[in-house]
Structures are given as C-alpha cells and as structure tokens.
C-alpha cells in the first residue's frame, strides 16, 4: 500500500518513550492519508490539530472527525499555525511534505518549528527521497533542533517503502542546554 504508515507509527512508538506525557500534537500537511486515528491511539492523552493549506482536504477531514473532540482541523498555512500565540506543542508531525515542490513555503515553516515546540518537544518528519532529506537538513541547521539518536527508530527492520522511507526525529534542547 502506497501510504502504509507502519514505519512512521513504529518510529513514534519506539522513539517517544513517555507517550502519555504528550498533550498537544500538531500535524502539518496531513492530506487525506496521514494516520490521525492511529496517532491518537498511540498518545491517549493528546489533542491533535491538523493544518493543511488545501481547503478540500480540510473539508473532508472536518467531516471525518466531526464527532471527535480530540481533533481540530484548520485550513491554514503551516507558517501561520506555527506562529500563533498558543503554538506550543509536545509533538509536531510532518509526513512526506514534498519539500522540493513547495520549497519556499516549507523552508519558511521548518525554520519556525523550534519556536512552536516545548522544551524537549519532538519533531518527526518522514521523507521519500534523499534530496528531500538534504533540504530538511539545510533548513534545520543552526537551529535548536537536535537529531534524536536511533534512526530509523525501528526495533526490528522494516523494509523501506511508501512515503515514510526516511524518518528524521528531532528534539528541542532543554532551556538550560541552549
Ligand atoms: C505531498 S502531500 C502529503 C500528504 C500526507 N501527509 C501524506 O503523507 O500522504 C502534502 C500536503 O501538505 C499540504 N501543504 C503543502 N504546503 C503546505 C503549507 N505551506 N502549509 C500547510 N499545508 C501544506 C498539501 O495541501 C498536502 O495536503
């Protein structure tokens, strides 16, 4: 299956030990195939906000999650969501954003991620080719984000496949480490 989320969910499970401590999740650019229900199941105390710039995507997600009070769908630019006054998240997920096709807007957004994360917050990005990985590393260089050791964050090998071929997990420094 093209959008099989197994690698992403496995990485989240293995890399974030205290999953019940995650209260606020931001899912950027979810499209219609991000595993929102599975992420909610992994983080049982969390509320999730999904932000996409595509109005049709947002309408369909709103219909899908209308009855779920843990989910809020917003039609917005990622950069705007990351700079809102209450943008303080424990976990930000960005799955297969296609950075190279929307380079300017994703570059701007990636630079804003650290300020929207709590201290020791996690930023999880999946990519499907190495050119995107280069772009991500360029955008996050010289930021308070530190790559979390342990890539690809899977306890047993899972074949490279689908949109989550390359998984990067970053953690923001504790205030005292900056
Ligand atoms: C390549 S799709 C990936 C969708 C989904 N995450 C997946 O892996 O199947 C990228 C998604 O990001 C959204 N998007 C692109 N640029 C964005 C931006 N600057 N702010 C918010 N959403 C954006 C698009 O509308 C689209 O739904």
Explain how this protein is built:
This protein has one domain: Rossmann fold (3-Layer(aba) Sandwich), CATH 3.40.50. Helix content is about 30%, strand content about 25%. The chain has 6 helices and 7 strands. A 7-stranded mixed beta sheet has the order 3-2-1-4-5-7-6, with helices on both faces. The site of S-adenosylmethionine (SAM) has 22 residues, from strand 2 and helix 5.
Brief summary of the model shown:
With 178 residues, the protein is an alpha/beta fold. The protein has helices spanning 6-15, 36-42, 55-65, 78-82, 103-112, 130-140; strands at residues 24-28, 47-52, 71-75, 89-95, 117-127, 145-147, 166-172.
Question: Strand-residue fraction?
Answer: 15-25%
Terminal Cα span: 42 Å
Number of helices: 6
Structural domain count:
1
Estimate the mean pLDDT confidence: 91
| CATH class wording | Alpha Beta
H-E string: HEHEHEHEHEHEE
CATH-defined topology: Rossmann fold
Instruction: Please name the CATH architecture.
Output: 3-Layer(aba) Sandwich
Class by helix and strand content? alpha/beta
